[in-house]
Amino acid sequence: MISQFQFKMKVLHFVKVNKKNTDRHAILAIVTFLVILLMYPIPDIFFEKKDVSSYYSDKKFVGSFTGDLVFNKYYDLSVQTGKTDTITKHLSSYMENSDYITGNVVGQITENESEILREFKFTTLNIDNKNKGNNEPLTSGILYTEVFKQEGLFNNIVYQQINDIKVATLGISEANYVENLTLIEDAKANADLVFVHMKWKETTDKKVSNIQRTIAKAICDAGADVVVGHNAQVLQPMEVYNDKVIFYSLGNFLHGDNYAFSLESVMAQYIIEPNNPSIVIRIIPLSLAYGYPKPALDFFDIPYRMSVTDTLTSNLPKDLKMTEKDGILSIIIN
Predict the structure, then answer these.
(1) DSSP code of 86?
(2) Could you say which DSSP state residue 72 is in?
(3) Which listed residue, of 10, 118, 294, 313, carries a Cα 20 to 30 Å from 94's Cα?
């Protein structure tokens, strides 16, 4: 009884001594709580999955572009344990409403990884291989281009008829882009749209080099409508050049490493509307916090989303028409 009384007295004494600091402690606790919310992703159960079908229903063509896919044991294990949907479900509504989806796979493709690619509904892939390999059985109907480490080895153009639009997809590297300029010209002569995957030498640099600019513009001059850079491992600024779009790097799309420089990512869309000569570029910011891509469109994603948008648009002219709705940036190209 005496010990209990002494404990109560100690508590009262502590409250009396620290009474002046109560408000300060309360404010500090609230701020700490908010910081934690902003730093860590909120579980999916707190947010309703958004249906985006209505936006895409009247579009003539929707092409979606992702960053690099670097597979590891985490993804293989997800497939083996029947959790492929965990990786792909957050983008399913965007993929289902796309006519064309392309990305860059680093390395050989395993059977488990091919299941993930099919679940994402990729229509074309660029495969960045150290050595030439037979990926056809594993891509299971997904058309692909390849860029090899050895110079002179490439299988870098495929054609697709999508509605009434013929699309050419090419994969080239910084080392052999000159030889492929003629091929890009030929592709433009035989297709309505030409999309070029470009492998850069330099990595982990958010700044676009003069060499990158020179090469990307040469590719556009040869006939490319969109250039998508790869191998940088980071998000880099985009550019609009003579009404052509250059994504120097969209960052990573699937990546097992949690280094800070590798987590900024976006999915870009090239949209043609009926009876409208303008092109709409949609930028969907992605969070890779758990090793899978998830649209960063929630309230607590605002700081991250602002950082991604600032990086991507930092080199765009001020007079370019841009709007943002529900966290997605739209850029109008005449």
Answers:
(1) H
(2) -
(3) 313
Tokens of 267: 């999915």
233: CB partners within 8 A, 6+ apart: 68, 203, 204, 249, 251, 252, 261, 262
DSSP 82: T
Q: How many CA atoms lie within 13 A of 10 on its CB side?
A: 6
Structure tokens at 191: 């297709």
Asked if residue 282 lies in contact with residue 269, where contact means CB atoms within 8 angstroms, the answer is yes
Is 0.70 topped by the overall pTM? yes
253 vs 101: CA distance, rounded Å: 13
How far apart CA 173 and CA 164 sit, in angstroms, is 30
Give ∠ CA 66-277-93 in degrees, rounded to 5.
35
How many Cβ atoms from other residues are within 10 Å of residue 117's Cβ? 23
Does CATH place domain 55-333 in 3.60.21.10? yes
pLDDT in tens, 192-215: 999 999 999 988 899 999 999 999
Q: Which tokens go with 129? A: 């291989």
* Contact in structure between 271 and 281 (CB atoms under 8 Å): yes
**Amino acid in the structure at residue 165:** I
Q: 41: helix, coil or strand?
A: coil
In this structure, how many other beta carbons lie within 10 angstroms of the beta carbon of residue 95? 17
Burial string for 123-158 (b: 16+ CB within 10 Å, else e) reads bbbbbbbeeeeebeebbeebebbbbbeeeeebebbb
CA angle 278, 230, 255 (to 5 degrees): 115
Of the CA atoms within 13 Å of residue 146, those in its CB half-sphere come to 21
Question: Where are the chain's structural domains?
Answer: 1-40, 55-333
- Taking the C-alpha atoms of residue 89 and residue 296, their distance in angstroms, rounded to an integer, is 14
Does the pLDDT of residue 40 top 90, yes or no?
no
Between these two residues, 49 and 62, which has the higher pLDDT value?
62
Residue type for position 219: I
Q: Which tokens go with 41?
A: 């992703």
